[in-house]
């Protein structure tokens, strides 16, 4: 029996567990009468009222809120807020496994939240800490007044960053508290999910999936 055949039961169990969690839906913006929705960590999609995408039915759209329905459960998704879980076990944060699919370029990206504010992560095993740009930190309302300044090496040379501790970092049903992070002065398209978060997990890659099982 080949390795791929041996992996099928494990992957099936993973998919079943993901289905039990339900749909995670976040609103990242709007385009006229359509909402930009991120469903289960995928790419943002413009969806108008009356349309259904991946089992998520959009009932109404405003510039700051979208009302959606999954399996008869109706919820309001606020712009920039933490992803809303529908059709599963609700907003529980007791999960212990994260499963991410590889995206273009071989990277692993995830929709999640920091201190309850929605954001996009990019897994970076070479980064010591979670890292985010100053503009993103300000959008999330992170307080840098008491942050410790630190010199860091970037692709553009040495720069001054600020070291802070995030109250929570959440992806899907998994929430980690007290995560060290660096806020850098330049803008970044993603929040880098570095080892201050990843070290709390056992990581393994299964074909095009990255599986993170929580250790502590």
UniProtKB/TrEMBL annotation:
Record key words, sorted: Hydrolase, Protease, Signal
Leader sequence segment: 1-19
GO molecular function: aspartic-type endopeptidase activity
Pfam families the record matches: gag-asp_proteas
Peptidase A2 domain segment(s): 119-197
GO terms, biological process: proteolysis
Domain of life: Bacteria
Keyword Hydrolase annotated: yes
SUPFAM superfamilies in the record: Acid proteases
NCBIfam families: clan_AA_DTGA (TIGR02281)
Protein known as: TIGR02281 family clan AA aspartic protease
Annotated organism of origin: Caldimonas caldifontis
